[in-house]
Amino acid sequence: MISPSRKMKLIVNPNSQPLKVALFLQPIISKFTKAGFTVDLYKTKGGGDATMVARESAKSGNYELVVAAGGDGTVNEVLNGLMSHPVMMGILPLGTSNVLCRALKLPLNPLKAADAIISGKSTKIDVGLANNRYFAIMISCGFDAYAIEQTSLKVKRITGRFAYVIAGIRSIYHYKPERINLIADGKPMESDAMLLCISNAHLYGGNYRLTPEAKIDDGLFDIFMYTGKDIYRFVYYLLRLFLHFHLNFSDTVRFRVKKLTLDSSGRVLYQGDGDLLGKLPVQISILPAVLEIAGVKGWKKAKRKYRFIDRKKIRNKVISIIRNEY
């Protein structure tokens, strides 16, 4: 429970979505001030800055709440700064995809997100650890990490999350999967998976459901692997993912684990919460209920009923999108 008489550290990434920051920052600060918070504002200056400031703020003991204002990258940096000295964390969606906000059913309107923080409600979530880097949403390796490496920052600033789609289209025919060796809760496995995702939350890349049954508070990772070798079938699966159709096929593998080790003799990149982290090997484990998030009501994810492909509906949807664009 938040007591609105203590100081709040507000860490803002001014470069995540500059227009959003310009429009919402001052009204948000006014809201917090009227609610009785003393707001200590910090604007980040570069990569890793948010982690350092969050760590120092938590270690000082002067702040009851540390708020990350930006996209999932900023949220991840602040999260990493808070894990050594746990302090309640707030999230203001001022980024591109805001996946963690969506997964926690937090408001995507920054002013309403501020109201949620002020409400005093909170819940604890699981956090993953990949080598020495914490994450809240997922770790994945293979094609999507390769696409992130190929993504132009200039294009991302203009097109937002669609920059990853553009990079993916350009990269898909050049990417060749490598053999990945896994140890899942002590059980050895191996696969030439084109995509391997270790999910803590049920959303992927925005509002897409690669692991729809994943829960961010159950103490388990949900694993998804595409083990097929047909590039055209993989493209077909991506289309199904974007259209919210199920992906339960013979060349996809799903299971749940608490610990996972990944290694490869080839160059296999991995990413966490949308940021490229490095290349395998990586050791991944889950830390149950270690981070308290402000503004979450104690959510319960609704079960999703999958749809099967209706070609007429797809055609009508594509026509509708084209009409809206042109």
Helix/strand layout:
Blueprint: E1 7-12, H1 18-34, E2 38-43, H2 49-60, E3 63-70, H3 72-82, E4 88-93, H4 99-103, H5 110-118, E5 122-130, E6 133-135, E7 138-142, H6 143-150, H7 153-159, H8 162-171, E8 180-184, E9 187-191, E10 195-199, E11 221-226, H9 231-242, E12 252-257, E13 259-263, E14 269-272, E15 275-279, E16 282-294, H10 311-325
Parallel strand pairs: 1-2, 1-3, 3-4
Antiparallel strand pairs: 5-6, 5-16, 7-10, 7-14, 8-9, 8-13, 10-11, 11-12, 13-16, 14-15
Helix pairs in contact: 1-5, 2-3, 6-8
Number of domains: 2
Low-confidence stretches: 299-309
Q: Reading side by side through the largest sheet, how are the strands ordered?
A: 6-5-16-13-8-9
N-to-C series of helices and strands: EHEHEHEHHEEEHHHEEEEHEEEEEH
Subunit organisation of the chains:
single chain
Largest β sheet strand count, sense and barrel closure: 6 strands, antiparallel
Q: N- to C-terminal separation?
A: 49 Å
User: What is the annotated CATH architecture of the largest domain?
Assistant: Sandwich
- The proportion of strand residues reads 25-35%
Mean pLDDT: 87
- The CATH class of the largest domain, by name, is Mainly Beta
- CATH topology category name of the largest domain: Tumour Suppressor Smad4
Specify the overall morphology: globular
